[in-house]
Write a structure and sequence with these properties.
16 strands, Quinone Oxidoreductase, Chain A, domain 1, 2 domains, alpha/beta, Rossmann fold, 11 helices, binds zinc ion, 8-stranded mixed β-sheet
Length: 366
């Protein structure tokens, strides 16, 4: 296998379709690296942002970070997965979206997702070896410092594939801000992060789940996942939304809110909707210029806690896979990947993903 040729879809510039190119698999693996045959990728919103030019990445590159694969070669020192189970050729695996050095200032602080030598899958120029670092390809090279997890057998490919992005991130979000069965929660955004968050909130046994979005089909899905109140904020004034939430919380407001919609204007609504002493987790504002436009007076007088997170610690991926193993049957996870196309149809898959009709589009490689 090592040293052979394979194909990958390469993004080179905005407005140009991805192009299939030949790459050579490495001849040798670093001791803690692995080589995987890609089984499936799903197209994330951030990939679409790169393709449309809303976000800049070092091109040319192989996009795709929501990936699962099958191990075809293991470095000599790579023995176990993140669960401590023995890794072997042929294992179906998921891995963290980033590789970290384990030694720098942030790694020492247990923030490996902010490693000073961070390498992210689907975000690295493919001109440099090992070239194959994105999901829209037949093979992928897993750098040393990547957390690899065997996927429990009961989780289908379509459900396991995006778990290393959305579900792992919201598990981090819940762990960071806290959530318990006595509380009510507002989830701003019913994309993949929001739907996963509804599932986590249901499993945490929370009192009431409010979800806001501007797309009816997404809100319908949030309802199917178990949200109690799905509010379309498209044509509603902030005041009306806040009064709906207060009416359902004895006039106090929600205990916890999550921003995962990427819309800065949503922040004011959450600050109004939170009770005194409430907690707010911001995880969706990844674009520069996200001025919050809120009155600091409210943070002070309302005793609010506001925290931010970005991505996740590798352990959250292990928790995500265990959660899916236990709970994925209870929720309509099967409805999230609307279509699955082959790698040779990558441009059609991207077009389909851009319509926003489906939560995810899958790209099957093997
Ligand atoms: Zn993603
Ligand atoms: Zn580091």
């Amino acid at each position: 296998m090592l040293g052979k040729e394979c194909k990958a879809a390469v993004f080179s510039e905005v407005g140009k379709p991805l192009e299939m190119r030949q790459f050579k698999l490495p001849r040798k693996l670093e001791p803690r690296a692995a080589l995987c045959k890609v089984k499936m990728s799903t197209i994330c919103g951030s990939d679409l942002h790169t393709i449309s030019g809303r976000r800049t990445e070092p091109a040319p590159l192989i996009l795709g970070h929501e990936i699962i694969g099958e191990i075809v070669a293991l470095g000599s020192d790579l023995k176990n997965d993140g669960f401590g189970e023995k890794l072997e050729v042929g294992d179906r695996v998921s891995w963290s979206i980033m590789a970290s050095c384990g030694r720098c200032f942030y790694c020492e602080l247990d923030l490996p997702q902010k490693c000073e030598k961070l390498r992210k899958y689907g975000h690295t120029c493919c001109n440099e070896p090992p070239h194959l670092t994105g999901g829209y390809a037949e093979y992928i090279y897993l750098f040393p410092g990547t957390a690899i997890y065997k996927i429990p057998a009961d989780i289908p490919d379509e459900i396991a594939t995006p778990a290393n992005c959305a579900l792992s991130t919201v598990i981090n979000a819940v762990e960071t801000i806290g959530l318990n069965e006595k509380e009510s929660v507002l989830i701003q955004g019913a994309g993949l992060l929001g739907l996963n968050l509804v599932a986590l909130a249901v499993e945490a046994g929370v009192k009431k789940i409010f979800v806001t979005d501007v797309v009816k089909s997404r809100l319908d899905l949030a309802g199917k996942f178990g949200a109690d109140f799905c509010i379309n904020v498209k044509d509603l004034a902030c005041k009306e939304v806040v009064s709906q939430i207060r009416d359902q919380t004895d006039g106090y407001g929600v205990d916890v809110a999550f921003e995962i919609c990427g819309v800065k204007e949503a922040v004011g609504l959450a600050v109004e909707s939170l009770r005194i002493g409430g907690r707010y987790l911001i995880a969706g504002l990844v674009m520069p210029g996200s001025d919050l436009g809120i009155d600091g007076n409210q943070l002070t007088r309302k005793y609010l806690t506001v925290k931010g997170i970005h991505n996740y610690n590798p352990k959250h991926l292990g928790m995500a896979l265990r959660f899916l193993e236990k709970c994925s049957q209870k929720f309509p996870y099967g409805e999230l990947v609307g279509r699955v196309l082959s790698l040779s149809q990558i441009n059609e898959a991207i077009e389909s993903a851009s319509t926003g009709k489906h939560i995810r589009i899958g790209v099957r490689t093997g």
